[in-house]
Write a structure and sequence with these properties.
Elements (H helix, E strand, L loop, with lengths): L13 E12 L2 E13 L4 E5 L6 H8 L7 E6 L2 E2 L5 H11 E5 L10 H6 L9 H14 L15 H13 L5 E5 L7 H18 L2 E5 L3 H6 L2 E6 L2 E6 L1
Helix pairs in contact: 4-5, 5-6
Length: 236
């Protein structure tokens, strides 16, 4: 991996072909995705919208290699994710994907710097090189001046910036954001979306954002609407 952040240095096309996914809840099978086909060109900025249960988060999880589909195929570049074993998916997540969650998911006992360092721990690099990467990521989202602070000492907007720094510290080809502004007030939500636009424009990383918020949906270059596990509309 590079010792500096190069977002989208080898941006990936994502091809989702006839993907289906269901879950067993008690005695009931819940269908999350039904025959979803979607093309995400390298460098795209796409929003997924739709009601709760539409399948947005499940689709993000499958694109990110956190879940496997029951049927269909996911191509990231030329790699078929459905053909990878658990170790292969872990490598894909580690080197190609950055995740941003609504609840931030920062470890409360670690500083901002230490939280952003987590994705780098398995990598064979010197501590000095890793710390340089972390500081660059924090600086890119304008939060480096708070590197030594614990999450509880940061505002919601600052915590989300730290979470974004953690997502980009490895220079991912794809950034997946699940309700990234859901815990924020409108001002901080707008700042986060502006930051995602800047990351997309300057780094050519493909960004996929799932959200109920019409302002977040409208900020994307392309909108995909989902209902009942299906893609029902696409607008550019």
């Amino acid at each position: 991996m590079p010792s500096h952040i190069v977002l989208g240095g080898e941006a990936l096309d994502i091809h989702i072909e006839h993907v289906a996914k269901s879950y067993r809840l008690g005695q009931v099978d819940v269908i999350a995705l039904q025959d979803v086909t979607l093309q995400l060109p390298a460098g795209d900025f796409v929003s997924l919208s739709g009601p709760s249960g539409a399948g947005k988060s499940t689709l993000l999880g499958i694109i990110g290699g956190l879940e496997r589909p029951d049927a269909g195929k996911i191509l990231a570049g030329e790699q078929d994710l459905t053909a990878l074993d658990s170790e292969g998916l872990a490598m894909y997540r580690r080197h190609s994907v950055g995740f941003i969650f609504q609840s931030f998911r920062l470890l409360p006992a670690l500083t901002a710097l230490e939280n952003v360092m987590i994705p780098l721990v398995p990598l064979v690099e010197s501590d000095e090189a890793k710390q340089k990467q972390v500081i660059e990521a924090l600086d890119r989202v304008n939060i480096a001046h708070r590197a030594g602070h614990l999450p509880g000492e940061l505002s919601g907007g600052e915590q989300q910036r730290v979470a974004i720094a953690r997502a980009i510290v490895n220079g991912p080809n794809v950034i997946l954001a699940d309700e990234p502004t859901g815990e924020l007030d409108r001002r901080n939500g707008e700042l986060i979306m502006q930051l995602l636009r800047e990351l997309n424009q300057s780094g050519a990383a493909t960004i996929v954002v799932a959200s109920h918020d019409p302002d977040v949906v409208g900020a994307a270059r392309r909108q995909v609407k989902m209902e009942d596990g299906r893609v029902v509309a696409e607008t550019a």
